[in-house]
Amino acid sequence: MNYLICVAIALAMAGPALSETFVPSLFRVTGVASNDVLNIRDQPNARSAILSAYPFDAQGIEVVGYDETGRWAKVGLGERNGWVSARFLSADGRPASLKCLGAEPFWSLTIDSPDARYKDIETPQITLHAVKARSTLPDAAGISAFDLDGIDLSISTVIRPRQCSDGMSDRMFGWGVDLILRRGPTEADGSGPLHQTGCCTLQGP
């Protein structure tokens, strides 16, 4: 399990975090009867409209924030967000990967250390080797950097927990990412490295 996921799980097990150091984490449904579901609501209150629901045994639910009381957890739901009662969630300790997306140009990056997969409008999906960078920051909760190396392409990434918009939907993601792409010999025009930004989401196995 990579360091980024270890940090997320450790903070999740400590309970809802309402401070600036909150790190999005994966959870599972708990305390719901096998003939019942956990409702996903439009707003953080029990009277709000029901948008969808999780089965009683759902896993891999990414929580990207809490309301001001800490009793309601914000989750991703398609192209928007919804809210579930936090008392019916517990930390999901399974390994996870990060799926990152960007627009203009469109690209995607999945980091499942020690591997990563990248593609964009110019590059068919390629596999890269992921190495996590050491940090000298004294307060780097949730912040991770990776070097990704492949044939004719290398990428440096910095991933930070923050509310992130993909610019195409109403959904807020829990992670923002900066990429520096170096295409090696294909950069014959001297254009140099390319900086891209996007949003990321945790995904369970």
Task: Give me the secondary-structure topology.
Layout: H1 3-13, E1 25-29, E2 37-41, E3 50-55, E4 61-66, E5 72-77, E6 80-85, E7 89-91, E8 97-102, E9 107-112, E10 115-120, E11 126-132, E12 144-150, E13 153-165, E14 172-182, E15 194-203
Antiparallel strand pairs: 1-4, 1-7, 2-3, 4-5, 5-6, 8-9, 8-15, 9-10, 10-11, 11-12, 12-13, 13-14, 14-15
Write structural notes for this entry:
The protein is mainly β. The chain folds into two domains: 3-91, Roll (SH3 type barrels); 97-203, no CATH class. Helix content is 5%, strand content 50%. It contains one helix and 15 strands. The protein has one helix at 3-13, and strands spanning 25-29, 37-41, 50-55, 61-66, 72-77, 80-85, 89-91, 97-102, 107-112, 115-120, 126-132, 144-150, 153-165, 172-182, 194-203. The strands form three sheets. An eight-stranded antiparallel beta barrel has the order 8-9-10-11-12-13-14-15. Strand 10 and strand 11 form a beta hairpin. The longest helix has 11 residues, at 3-13. The chain is elongated, with a radius of gyration of 18 Å. 29% of the residues are buried. Mean pLDDT is 86; it is low at 1-19.
The overall pLDDT, averaged over residues, is 86
How would the global form be characterised? elongated
H/I helix tally? 1
- Helix and strand composition category: mainly beta
**How many beta-strand elements?**
15
Order of helices and strands: HEEEEEEEEEEEEEEE
Alpha-carbon distance between the termini?
A: 11 Å
Low-confidence stretches: 1-19
Q: What does the largest sheet look like?
A: 8 strands, antiparallel, barrel
Cα-atom radius of gyration: 18 Å
Q: Provide the β-strand percentage band.
A: over 45%
Helix content: under 10%
List the strand order in the largest sheet: 8-9-10-11-12-13-14-15
Domain count: 2
